Amino acid sequence: MNTASKALSIALLAGFFFAGPGKAESTQFGDLKVETPWARASIGTARPAAAYMTIRNGGSATDQLVGVESPVSGMAEIHKVKTKDGVVSMSPAGPLPIGPGETVALAPGGLHVMLMKLRQPLEKGARFPLTLTFERAGKVTVDVPIHGVGAIAPEK
Amino acid sequence: MIRRRFLLGVAGLAGLLAATLFAGWWQVDGPGARTPRLSIAGGPPPLAQAEMTLTDHEGRRTSPASWVGRPTLLFFGFTYCPDVCPTTLSDITGWLEALGGEARDINVAFVTVDPERDTAEAMADYVDMFHPAIVGYTGAPDEIRKTADFFGAFYKKVETESGYMMNHTATVFLFDAAGNFRSTIDYHEAREIAVPKIRKVL
Predict the structure, then answer these.
(1) Domains plus CATH for chain A?
(2) Which of A128, B76, B111, B170 could be bridged to B187 by S-S, CB 3.0 to 4.6 A?
């Protein structure tokens, strides 16, 4: 094995560990639990990016996700994708109610956090903070790992 | 006893396999096959009749008529779309990987419905992130309109607080090597259904 290929294998191996088998992350917050937040890498800053997660309400009262914000984005909103007769459209979802015992999934093709006016590119392997504001529970900040542009699920 | 359990296991697996195959047949060719929701009855006309001129992501001027001779998978979208389009491109990348060498001759055409922002360079930045077979196409706004109309695809600009978004047909269109329309794949259709549909045009 020559030096170049040895260096390459070490780089690949290091990449494997750093990109590595991430743990399923969750943040417990009062009655709410925010699980496996993740985002797709962006291409530059001109195009909006999307972030996803699952929110569980283990309490006995309905709570609502009323706002999202992040230092990486000048404007963040919860958006919903609808498909009708093969045509997809996207629009702000408004406050997102989560009933007692309910789980709401923000996932590709459905609900997502739309991060507009990006202040910096979202680079694969990096992380950024995202603050969620709930009507009852208040604010919680989760740390969001960035996966590839083509990711369709949080990488395990 | 062990042998009996083993036989039961084998029978169970065989049953599962048969059920999976049956479900696949049902949804692809059988009575469960979804009628594509096409705005043109019977689907788009043969590709050979397409007269519009588009520019691919490497800056070459071309026409959908040039796709004839190889099977074609066509879809519409735009690169400022954060959710649906990367998901579709990712799904298509997965289908192509599942087909491997079988799909080496297929044209995979991604036509933008947002020519204002999606220049050839913008398309290049975007498609480079996905399967190498995917070719991005843009063009003059009237050529894009003619292209969408030809295929019966819908798109509409929607103003938003931060700019605009595009509502658009997310259906994937499949053509055989002769350029005749064969079928569609719905947005978010399962790989088990999509891959056999593509295989039928190869």
Answers:
(1) 21-147 (2.60.40.1890)
(2) B170
